[in-house]
Design a protein that fits this description.
By secondary structure, the protein is mainly β. The chain contains six helices and 25 strands. The chain is globular, with a radius of gyration of 22 Å. It starts with 12 loop residues before the first strand and ends in a 6-residue tail after the last helix.
Length: about 375
Amino acid sequence: MQNPVFLFDDKIKTYWVNPENPTGEKGGAAKALNGRKGAPCLRNLKPGETRVLAQAQGCGMIRRIWITTEKKEKLQTLKGYVIRCYWDGQDKPAVEVPMGDFFCFNSGELSPMENEFFSNPEGRSFNCYIPMPFKTGMKITVTNETENIEEIQFFYQVDYTLGDDVKDALYFHAYYNRERRTVERKDYVILPPVAGHGRYLGASFGVIANPLMTNSWWGEGEVKCYIDGDGEYPTLANTGVEDYIGTGWGQGRFVNRYQGCVHADDKAKRYSFYRFHVPDPVYFSQDIRITVQQIGCATKQDIEDMMDNGLVVQNTASTPIDYETQGAIFERFDDDWCSVAYFYLDKPASQLPALPSYRERIAGYLPR
């Protein structure tokens, strides 16, 4: 599907689509202002407006997406600008995700980072290198769903090829979810049930921990993958959130190829992190569903502090925790989770729920 860099394939044609050549027309780039950089960006992207970033007919592959904007550090921009990708003429997008979340900045805080699929070289731009095949055509759009933010300049480039042999390729999908107040003993849903065959590529997450739970650790919950007809119990499970992303005993900032935490603020209890399954693939033949338990860990002092805050803290056996103990695993609630599940599927569209509204996505975040 992707040729070695030292081979030439005359069937594959390269296209860079940006405001200097919005259709990818041959010989059509850099014409504005007599070829002197007259159209570097989309201007005045108004609230409620959708613009097409790239569109093509034929078989091919998205190779890279690059974006930067004015006011990119604003929560309104990161949560309010939505990227949508449509494959093979479908009306429903396979990708429908807020811009910041798509690029792994789910908590709304930017920082320099680079992993296998995404990068933000100096904390002020966004790159995606996930291969996204299509068989008859593609369309990528951006929508300004903010309400009061000013019109901004939107810079972008989509690099793609046509003529690729993708007849056996799966389609890339990305699903956003958010639960402002998680429920005790109810797992947070990373990916609702999806029918078909494919591959779970991984996920990025944002967590704002319940401030009434003081300094207790929020990430003891296990990630669970229910695949190919699993019922009450999954086939795949890990041993905790920080374990899932390859670290241990809590979670600070680190950036690795397949796992990392791009933002860790223990004082504000806000975190952004990711995990990609590349050398350890997660395949499914019939269906898949992915969740993470809402379980924490507390010291004796944490338990006493939570009780002082009026909380009734239950252990995982559904009985009140004895505050005289030296600490315990306990059931959490009222944490704020959001996530993006990245996966490949044999269909160009799915039956997953539509994206929550802008107000639902940004509610509860501190204004900046």
